[in-house]
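Troubleshooting: if your tokenizer reports a length mismatch, compare against these two reference records.
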Amino acid sequence: MSISTVTYVTYVTVQEQITMSAAAPAKKEGLAALPGRMVISAMGGSVAATFCHPLDTLKVQMQVSGGVRYTSMADAAVQIVRREGMFRGLYAGISAAYMRQWTYGACRVGIFSQLMSMTGKDKDSVSFATKLGMGMVSGGIGAFVGTPAEMALVRMTADSKAPLAERKNYKHVFDCLARAAKTGGVRQMWAGADLTIARSMLLSSSMLASYSEIKGILHRAQPSMFPADGIVTMFCGTLIASVIANTVVNPVDVIKSRYQLRPSDYTGIVDCFRKSVQAEGMLVLYRGYVPAFIKLAPYTVISLIVTEQISIAVSGSSAV
């Protein structure tokens, strides 16, 4: 096929797309493509991180071993604030949290939204099994891209728990990443990536698929009380999905946090699991469940609702 023929076909195709877009002005395309969906998702996640990061700090500090001991989440909050102050203590690692949203968060929700759109079906018509698969794909990709930020987040939020002589006192996320690369090589930034990916696949599939499915169930059961894209529907959907996701993911989260904090203490993830269970029993896998849920629930509610509202304003349809 000649270049001129290819050029003509391309021109005709573009003209057809312009004509189709003009014929349906009610649907705003705007940022509806994958990059736009990722930006919208990152924005929603960043808003949530701003409010919820202290809960992430408490969760990580309660999950990791060594250093200061806490009897409860309230005890952890009091001790951290006394040691470090409100902002420096509870907002330690906030730069890593933002980086995590613009890598992991952007891919996780953005790719899921794009895959849902690519089916060409109404969201309620997509099967739950398909949604689970989409969540696994988007979560796995997001986790691989966001593992360096995840590793930095764990190290920066857990640093104040260590004895003074052993603290790293990271300045910001890039300082943490640079030091990790300097001491352990670039591969060190992907320490525990397999576990992070597994966790994210479980979290994304259970949370996003459940949320999307629950919205449809609520709307079909009580359409007047739960409008298709209403705030109440979104709020109830995210809250129920948070319970499901937290129960599925907490065991993986505990092992991931411990391995990423001190990878040199273990020969691998299985060794980390074995040593943790041998030393502290099976219940160690659900350590920090309450702070994890208290963090996950508001984060999920805020991030998904903000993402959904931005998506509706920009593209005319919800993201998930």
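Reference record two:
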Amino acid sequence: MMTIKRRRSFFLLSATIVAAAHLTTFTSHALSSNTAAATTTTNNNNSCTTSSSPLITPEDIQKISRGGVAIIPNWLPPHLITSMHDDAQQLFASGQFRPDGLTNTAIKEQGFTQKADRQTFRGGAGWDDNIGDFQTRREFADRMRELRVQLATALDRPSLAEEGTLKHEMTYNWYEPGAKLGRHLDEHHEETKGPSGWTMPTRRSVTWLIYLNEGWTKEEGGALRCMPRSDDSIEKNMVQVGCHEGNLQVGWVNDGVDPVFLDVFRESGGAALYQVKKNNDGEEREILSVRDFEVPPQPIDFSKFMKEEVRDSFAQISTSRLDPRFASAGTASTNSNHHDFDCSDEPTILDVTPVAGTLVLFDSVSLPHLVREVTGKRQRIAATGWFHEDSQFSLEMS
């Protein structure tokens, strides 16, 4: 029997248990291979083929690769903006949206209210089900699949292109006036997730958002606030952010220029922090931690494991204060105070006004972000989601 081994202190999960977990805990429905095949049908019932024209420029690819934010105005065709906006409104009116805070305990532990937090269409009926304007969502899914395949090649993340049940997430988000969402990352290293780590075969790799409100203005609020590093740090960065050889990023050194990765599959049985150095022969790892170590339970401060000479320059991306999903249930705040933190003390801030048709893309592991309060009188509606890569596993045959 094949089992999936979770590191050191974790128990073994059999393949059958993991399979069951996929069906019950991964509530964000993905585009299955069957749906992908069906997306060749458009709204007017004509067969369409995948276009060879690029949906994203090399400049935007470089922004994602280096940890920046790709913002592409007018990316979604006008007819899809209108039909998707109408579809979301119909689904909301029929009760298909659900509370969606920063964890799956939004109502009980995060003080969720419909007026203060986002609501999402992804569970229950699911994105793929024949409810609402299914033909519009098929057409949109086909366009996003083409984008994902292009990203897989351009970012050298080949498993992005793969189809599969419960792999890629697609949602509608709905913010009532007054709603907002606190600072967070969309993905974390599995070893930092405690009991919920190492249970899924894929992870979030690229985050995407597409806005659906015509005529939205800055005065109506609801901006996506991103916290990238400085333009100078992004420009100097020569190593792709987010993941290196399966090891996810947890921080930065050298004023945000170089990503720091966490390797938890060392020969010692411990973990190490490292950066990647480029040289004439390719690249090599430079170990930044004093010695191999056991990753502690939350809250985690990785700086205490760093060598003294690099400790002062180390910046951890997620902490229990800044990101409620990075803390365990026992250490995370049980109120909604984190929603009030707007990151005004961050070194760099990028606000993106949710103008209809705009596509936003960034690496899911390395870029903190939030949604500012909707101050206008209408709902803020968007399509959002994540393209997944294969996760890192240790397989044992018995």
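Descriptive notes for reference record two:
- The radius of gyration is 21 Å.
- The mean pLDDT is 81.
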